[in-house]
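**Discrete fold encoding**
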Amino acid sequence: MKQKVYVVDTNIILQNLQHLYNIADRGNNIVVIPETVLIELEDKKKLLDELGYNSREFARLLARAKTKEVDYKKHYKVVKMVVDRMHIHLISKDKYESEMLEHNLAESNDKRIVEVAELAQEYYKGLKVRFLSIDIYARMFALLKNIKAETLHDDRSDMPEFDFVKRVPLDSSHFNRLPFASIGEFDPGHKPENFCYSFYAEDGNSAYAIVSGERIEVIDDSVFHALAVRPANLKQKFFLKAMLSDTYDLLVVDAKAGSGKTLLSIAAAMRLIDKGMYEKIVYVRNSIESLDKGSEVGFLAGNEEKFRIYNMALYDTLEFIAKKRLKKHQNREREESIRSKMDELMERYGIEMLWPGEARGRTLSDAIVIMDEWQNASEKTTQLILSRLDESCMAVVIGSNRQIDNLYLNRYNNGLTALMKQTRFSHDEVKMFAISLDKAVRGRFAEFTERIFEKKQY
């Protein structure tokens, strides 16, 4: 197979250093790092988040590399290095055509990186040169320079269709045999991802159940009576039944905005703590800003204040539950009572807020760990958090692939999707459950926006 040359954009390294090893193919290909990429990585290495960690990892990789040759050319030079059987070439130009624009530094950097890709076509004449970037705009700049541009293969993979809820016809005479029976008896075609079942009969009889350990657990609405929040639809019932059954180690929920995923998770976790099954709730949310927010978390003082904006979903949930638990006649000094009740809930259920950057070196025990907005977390961060949990924990991973704010991720390669893909298989280490919540329950505004914005208009 002919050797290929990959000129990589900064985002390839910042997403996951493993990408370099994959494209290097054990030394069969050459990985080109433009000088501008080094500058951008240098700028990121002081960050305390995942981007900073990946930048530092790359710096450690370069520190181990051996320089084999420095090739001085007119107007540019190529530093050839080898590390872990990987051929890394650093290319810098004496002068760049693209001006550095302070008001649009990212675009200036993109164009300078593309200039190196254009130069690589000349330097590696006879080899296939490809510019590799996650950023569609950077790839377009490359195409305009007649450079072959690609994204990661994972980005182009198709999202599999999941069959989390399965409908099965059943004669009414068999409904009383469902509880704790083997699912294979009623559905010989059962697959690991068929976590939920809707059994129906021609006479209108129906029953709903989840499958745990290949045994059927029929849903009885009485299990929801002690909750601060009751399920509003069938899929919410499936999710809550799965959490309250305490037979799953890892629950994964892909849910649209307003579907109640955070509220349901917290309410069910509180119930499990009330029953003495766990000691605390650990709420984890990746600190990725929405592009529309405009606020810079780095300028805020103290970790609690810095990450408060990312934990607003938790505070809103606690406020909602606090109002539900307060008696209606407590109208006097109501705001103070709500705040006091929220503090009481935080203490009673041992609620902790964990930033992924603080997780290294920790071990979590006897906790329900709720990983929220996980469409914005990478596979590496997902591994980091889950590897902190011991056998006494339950993990609930929730998010929405419709709302990805992380510039380095998409619906194919984030942590939420990676876990959803694993639901198609049985695992010896953990028992998984997954569900998609596709109905907004916040009220008429959520329903209105869902109807007009999530359907094509012609």
User: Anything to note?
Assistant: The mean pLDDT is 87.
